[in-house]
Amino acid sequence: xxxxxxxxxxxxxxxxxxxxxxxxxxxxxxxxxxxxxxxxxxxxxxxxxxxxxxxxxxxxxxxxxxxxxxxxxxxxxxxxxxxxxxxxxxxxxxxxxxxxxxxxxxxxxxxxxxxxxxxxxxxxxxxxxxxxxxxxxxxxxxxxxxxxxxxxxxxxxxxxxxxxxxxxxxxxxxxxxxxxxxxxxxxxxxxxxxxxxxxxxxxxxxxxxxxxxxxxxxxxxxxxxxxxxxxxxxxxxxxxxxxxxxxxxxxxxxxxxxxxxxxxxxxxxxxxxxxxxxxxxxxxxxxxxxxxxxxxxxxxxxxxxxxxxxxxxxxxxxxxxxxxx
Length: 325
Hints:
The chain is an alpha+beta fold.
């Protein structure tokens, strides 16, 4: 969750809470408040006062001809005044009790709303913390996991009995470049030469089914997949009459994903950068180079075949056989 989302949610919750509190306070305090101070007595048609329990000694005249009486509780004159005073005091106490109850209700509502918001944002904080923990765990796994990759393609010249070049051995060097062991490793490598470029609908089949036996590769440990290619194929590639490719795959488990397969796919195009008829000196570079080619390059979910899927077997052009030594 982004910080902007948190801020927007907090503002929205604050506005809703303010509106709720305003509604509660408004409905709680719009109540009639009786006037227990002075009240008015009017004369009847005969000029007499309707309430004879009050004497003129407790009254004062108003400009409109009515009479206002002071609060009787200030100076009750009679037992009736005293009783009325007590009734007023009881009414005032009841009114105060109602007011206190409503204030308590408002405070309780505010507390409840605060508790709801606290629980809500505590849950969101817990969710954000869990998401952060998952991200940290994924980062740790990606940093420490096993990662088996082809790290090089070595070329050795195959020499005939008359010291002529009859072919080349291409060794695919595969290394666990990760920080932990790769378990149950299985894979294969293929070499194929076409009379044209790699077809767009090529499905990267295996020439032979891979060996079902598995192995383990420790950190920095290397395994090799050797492949042979005939001299004539290399000459045809040099003269642009044909194109050659090396491709393969590996699947394995790491210590973090015992039930989820890891996968690596690779595909390179063979390039001839020198005279293939010349036998290079032991310290010199080979006459072949390799460049990544096509969609058959990736790891795990980015692979052409997802982890656990198997390429088809067979259907590749037959390899050119080198002459007998």
